[in-house]
Backbone:
């Protein structure tokens, strides 16, 4: 061994700090473009700056924040190129996921997808709806039964969450009313194991969000 191991408690603390900051971003406490200052975060969380610095590096790897020497760390503000890249990558991953769900999903898998739609129909606000939206896609990728595909989804999940937060930041009109019905259609097509309809509906679902953002991001 070339050196001492880091204390487990310290690494656990950095992970906890990352979780707290991530949740604050997802709850709308820090909007895209907001500054995240180590000193202020450390004071608010009651920790030293070390775990905060580690946490911000973790969130930077997830794509949630960006660190620049002359600006410090800020919550990622998605550019038009970011939106286009996320959309195209989601399209590739979702196509495989849908095809595998149609071919391999069990009744229990499909029931889990339906259960998320039911929660969406009871969502009280746009942020809760965004969380349900992500949980729906979590259930689809889990139902696909493809470990590496699921890992690929998890690698971009935080950025997709940011994508959806940006979408409701642009416009919430119709989001609470329309999104549950969209997802009900998606779930119905998957349960029917109708590959072509499901692929078309997932593509349309992505297109609507993309069109809202593509012309209105910096």
Residues:
């Amino acid at each position: 061994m070339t050196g001492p191991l880091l204390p487990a408690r310290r690494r656990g603390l950095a992970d906890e700090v990352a979780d707290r900051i991530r949740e604050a971003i997802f709850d709308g406490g820090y909007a895209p473009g907001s500054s995240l200052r180590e000193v202020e975060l450390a004071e608010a969380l009651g920790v030293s700056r070390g775990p905060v610095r580690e946490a911000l590096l973790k969130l930077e790897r997830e794509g949630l924040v960006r660190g620049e020497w002359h600006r410090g760390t800020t919550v990622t503000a998605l550019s038009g190129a970011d939106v286009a890249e996320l959309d195209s990558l989601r399209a590739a991953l979702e196509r495989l996921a849908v095809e595998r769900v149609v071919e391999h999903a069990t009744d229990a898998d499909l029931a889990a997808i339906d259960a998320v739609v039911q929660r969406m129909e009871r969502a009280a606000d746009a942020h809760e709806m965004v969380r349900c939206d992500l949980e729906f896609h979590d259930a689809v990728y889990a139902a696909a039964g493809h470990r590496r595909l699921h890992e690929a989804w998890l690698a971009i999940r935080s950025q997709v969450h940011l994508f959806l937060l940006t979408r409701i930041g642009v416009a919430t009109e119709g989001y609470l009313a329309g999104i549950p019905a969209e997802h009900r259609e998606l779930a119905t097509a998957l349960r029917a194991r109708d590959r072509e309809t499901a692929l078309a509906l997932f593509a349309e679902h992505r297109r609507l969000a993309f069109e809202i953002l593509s012309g209105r991001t910096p």
Observations:
- The first strand starts at residue 35 and ends at 36.
- Residues 80-104 form the longest helix (25 residues).
